[in-house]
Design goal:
There is one protein chain. The protein is mainly α. Helices cover about 70% and strands about 0% of the residues. It has one domain (about 5-125). The protein has six helices and no strands. The radius of gyration is 18 Å and the shape is elongated.
Length: about 140
């Protein structure tokens, strides 16, 4: 995949995560409502915001973008699962915007993680093994 496209998707995912983590840290009514409905207010909101902040930093760090994408994938899988099982697609009259943003972030992160899979610690070598050096015969 083209590195420019990867960067566009990384910035897109980071921007969405960055915008939503602000509302979580600031205690916006929508965030409090969501995490109260899930039964994890306030610690779940703060923990999610902290993990989103880490994901944003990693997504914008060239050597760690793949890890940021994996973290964002996990966070968005949780968000999507929460929407589908507890919250519903539309939350507090948002018209499904938060659900749509979770889907976009999940998709962007999936593409970044796949395109940068060789950079994932431990797993990367499984995708792209390094050639073994030749051992001189005695």
């Amino acid at each position: 995949m083209n590195r420019k496209l990867s960067w566009v998707l990384q910035v897109l995912a980071a921007a969405i995560l960055g915008q939503t983590l602000f509302f979580k840290f600031s205690g916006a009514p929508e965030s409090v409502h969501i995490f109260s409905t899930l039964g994890v207010e306030p610690w779940g909101r703060f923990a999610t915001a902290a993990l989103e902040l880490v994901a944003v930093i990693l997504l914008l760090t060239p050597r760690r973008a793949a890890l940021g994408a994996l973290l964002a994938l996990g966070l968005m899988a949780g968000a999507i699962g929460s929407h589908l099982t507890v919250l519903g697609i539309e939350v507090a009259g948002d018209g499904g915007t938060l659900f749509a943003l979770a889907l976009v972030t999940f998709g962007a992160s999936a593409v970044v993680a796949f395109s940068r899979r060789s950079e994932i610690p431990v797993l990367g070598p499984l995708f792209f093994p390094r050639p073994m050096s030749r051992v001189a015969a005695d």
